[in-house]
Amino acid sequence: PLSTAPAPPPAFAGVPLKYISLVTLAVQNAALAVLMHYSRISAQPSRAYSAAAAVLATELLKGAISLAIAFTRVDVPYSRVPDATSRLVRSPLYPPTFLARCRVLGKEVFRPDCWKLSIPAILYVIQNNLQFVAASNLDAATFQVTYQMKILTTAAFSVLLLRKKLTSLKWFALIFLAVGVAIVQLQASGSSSHGGNAESSMVPFKGFLAVVAACFTSGLAGVYFEMVLKNSSGDLWIRNVQLSLFSLLPALAPIVLSGQRPAGRIVVPSFTNLFANFTVAAWATVATQVLGGLVTALVIKYADNIMKGFATSLSIVLSFLLSVALFNIRITLTFLVGATVVLVATWLYSQPDS
Fold first, then answer.
1. Cα gap 141→253, rounded to integer Å
2. Which uninterrupted H or E stretch holds 11?
3. What is the per-residue pLDDT for 80?
4. CA–CA separation, 298 vs 316, rounded Å?
């Protein structure tokens, strides 16, 4: 009889892709929190780089990479050709084949329902800008823990928009999560910064409000994006390209509106100065954000909720350890209790329904 053994899971160098993608996502989340905070507080506010420019650069790079990957995945119907030239015709760099791929890709990207991606695209741009505000006013560990409220907002929008049913354990985990975040915020608001430069001008309450708003936009955008994916066909990388395209206009808006207005006219800022004050840390922040957007696609495809919960918990621990080592933050009992509560709540919420 023929063997019916299941196919082995996708792997790289013998390691399953789901583990590679989740560990990468955990490290990326921790590194992003630390890099974003450091890049914002390492210089005086007057010498800080433009957060809006960083968001625009992220969308441009993420869109370009997604477009390149989508281009390689396009199926082109080949005409019958002699065997001697079939390899040449099937090469993506062969001019007729290249043009055919471009036409097919263009039809996929600008399909009639592509406008549905405009709503999550705008929300994601707002979320990314709010993250910079939060990172400028909260230490990396506090920001990372508080940002886990996006689990709560995502669950709420899933119940409202997707009509999902949550078990009693998940509701308990969400309440536990809110309590843990509240404990961490008590610690953040009760401590004062003793750092120099821009660190002394951090406003924890402003950072907390930015995180709350970012969690709401993240939850709504994520649930709406899930609705689009479930109710229509299309490659995930094509959807990423559409997201980046619709993100360009809202990403450009704050840059254009930040220009001076002499005599009632709006002066568009010079794009030669768009990336002024961009340091190595600023570009590293942009690169880490781009990596997160690409790794998330792999996590959606290969990982389950339990593994994603583990990756989230690992990222919190890593960002906390990095913050202690790099920024000399004080380890308080209040923070440890709050962070532990958030970790337990994240683990409980990721458990499968019985």
1. 31
2. strand 11-12
3. 42
4. 20
